[in-house]
């Protein structure tokens, strides 16, 4: 259907998604040129991010109008914490860092800004707005994984990351959230749909900024 909310939202960020695919952090995963130190910075920041993201998902669960959506987002909030503990512990170990050491490293500017925006949208906005704000993290990662898996990576650490986001289990999760997005978007007022689009575009931009910050191993300038 051309009038699904997901299609409208994606039409707003299609060019932005192209910039994500062209970013040297993303291309470096498949050609193996990305330094491990850079990927380690990314994983550390992703661990910080996922703790905040889990809170945003829990807020979506609390605001959900149906039991099914409450259950879905509550499970995803728990899953984000599990991923931070399990996947990242595995990847960090391969990169020479423990989870405890990673937790003590500072939260970078893009990470802090992204999480702050997510929490503001989830707490301060409607359920539909919260769903739109958290959606890019689901959807863009799924699209990136799907794009990268064909090329693969000569680096086993990067291949493990690609395989997770290209996997059927992850894509089933994304599809469930997209279905929820279509439902709430169809019921949204014109003003609420406009806010959904604004949140979706903003957090999609933060996705680019997150990878860019990792590529630059961003730190606070002062």
TrEMBL record:
<comment type="function">
    <text>Catalyzes an amino-pyrimidine hydrolysis reaction at the C5' of the pyrimidine moiety of thiamine compounds, a reaction that is part of a thiamine salvage pathway.</text>
</comment>
<dbReference type="Pfam" id="PF03070">
    <property type="entry name" value="TENA_THI-4"/>
</dbReference>
<feature type="domain" description="Thiaminase-2/PQQC">
    <location>
        <begin position="11"/>
        <end position="216"/>
    </location>
</feature>
<dbReference type="GO" id="GO:0050334">
    <property type="term" value="F:thiaminase activity"/>
</dbReference>
<keyword id="KW-0378">Hydrolase</keyword>
<dbReference type="InterPro" id="IPR004305">
    <property type="entry name" value="Thiaminase-2/PQQC"/>
</dbReference>
<dbReference type="InterPro" id="IPR050967">
    <property type="entry name" value="Thiamine_Salvage_TenA"/>
</dbReference>
<dbReference type="InterPro" id="IPR016084">
    <property type="entry name" value="Haem_Oase-like_multi-hlx"/>
</dbReference>
<dbReference type="InterPro" id="IPR027574">
    <property type="entry name" value="Thiaminase_II"/>
</dbReference>
<keyword id="KW-0784">Thiamine biosynthesis</keyword>
<comment type="similarity">
    <text>Belongs to the TenA family.</text>
</comment>
<protein>
    <recommendedName>
        <fullName>Aminopyrimidine aminohydrolase</fullName>
        <ecNumber>3.5.99.2</ecNumber>
    </recommendedName>
</protein>
<comment type="pathway">
    <text>Cofactor biosynthesis; thiamine diphosphate biosynthesis.</text>
</comment>
